[in-house]
Amino acid sequence: MPIRLGVPKEITLGERRVALVPDVVARLVKKGFHVVVEKDAGKTAFFTDDVYRSAGAEIVGNASAVYAAADIVLRVQPPSLEEISALKASSMVIGLMAAHANIDRVRRMQEKGVTSFSLELVPRITRAQAMDVLSSQATVAGYKAALLAANMTGRFLPMLTTAAGTIRPARVLIMGAGVAGLQAIATARRLGAIVEAYDVRRAAGEQVLSLGAKFLALEINAEGSGGYARELTAEEKVQEQEMLARHVGEADAVITTAQIPGRAAPRLISRAMVERMKPGSVVIDLAAESGGNCELTKAGEVLDHHGVSVVGPVNIAATLPVHASEMYAKNMMSFLGLFSDDGSALTIDWNDEIIKGSLLTREGQIMNEAVRKLAEGGSS
Ligand code: NAD
Q1: 197 with 268, same domain?
Q2: Which residue in 18, 96, 167, 237 has the most C-beta neighbors within 10 A?
Q3: Where among 314, 345, 368 does a domain terminate?
Q4: Can you give the pTM of this predicted structure?
Q5: 227 lines ligand 1 (CB under 6 A)
Q6: Structural domain tally of the chain?
Q7: pLDDT tens digits for range 10-28
């Protein structure tokens, strides 16, 4: 009997992605899985039910039918409390659970006895690269951030020599040169801007230079464990601010992507720094959802501060739903490779580092230590 995978339509406001795209459905069906997709699940990402059907999926009329049929429910956003009620206790759920922001849902999955996995908790080891949704979705976010910046500056990004005069290229500053930052650099460069970038990890410098941007160096190295940044000391923060204030003031667009896992985003741009920027310039803050890299950022809003737009996009990856879904679905398929070889028998190794790292709830327990502590603390 094949394992039944279920893909419900995402119901979170603004979420246009879908957990499996038809190409990936076809590959999973070929492997031996049975795939049940809710009617119109791919509509907002431009994948029609007919294409899913041709790929071998069974289309069902509503989410309840997906939950009734599925052994493993595949999602982008975490299930709502109502959706958790509709799940079979024996089912598994895989998605971006954002557990820290959704403790009530985690508790409900725990109480129900559902086995849930959070893809953003997949450890970033080499073997898990093909499952790395943080990287695939950050790629989308960085690209889209550069387009947003270009769209909002009111200026050309490239240098233009025309009969109506010569246009100087725009200056774009990227703060945080991880996955999203590097993609933003590449995109702004393709559009012809002069790009400079900053990161506290020195290792990022080489990648920045290879993309044709200038790396703003500070004489400190803040590389922590696992390739992530560590938090800066107070003295280092002052040095960082002085150097950055000058470059922010000269930029037509600043794109910030700086994050520290498990903590609020570092504050890189103060109100005073924004006030040094020219009217018509723009700050795109990709860290808006984790508190913002800019003091003025409000998640989900566009503020005008003395003519400078401060933009705090929320779930920006969902605004490019075709490729964001394609990449997400491929990550999902790779992750499912840990569940079954032939699509019929579950062969999960509960001691596997990736399974252990991403497991959120199982057999009535919250399995992730940090999330368990949060749940026990009573906060939600
Ligand atoms: P992230 O989203 O956690 O952070 C984005 C960037 O912000 C990082 O480059 C970080 O150094 C930077 N940052 C943090 N504090 C800062 C500050 N105060 N000022 C300026 N920049 C600051 O990181 P990410 O993009 O997900 O990945 C970070 C690194 O991990 C990259 O080098 C990436 O290549 C690596 N990575 C490795 C794997 C793997 O081995 N499987 C997978 C993904 C990413």
Answers
A1: yes
A2: 18
A3: 314
A4: 0.94
A5: yes
A6: 2
A7: 999 999 999 999 999 999 9
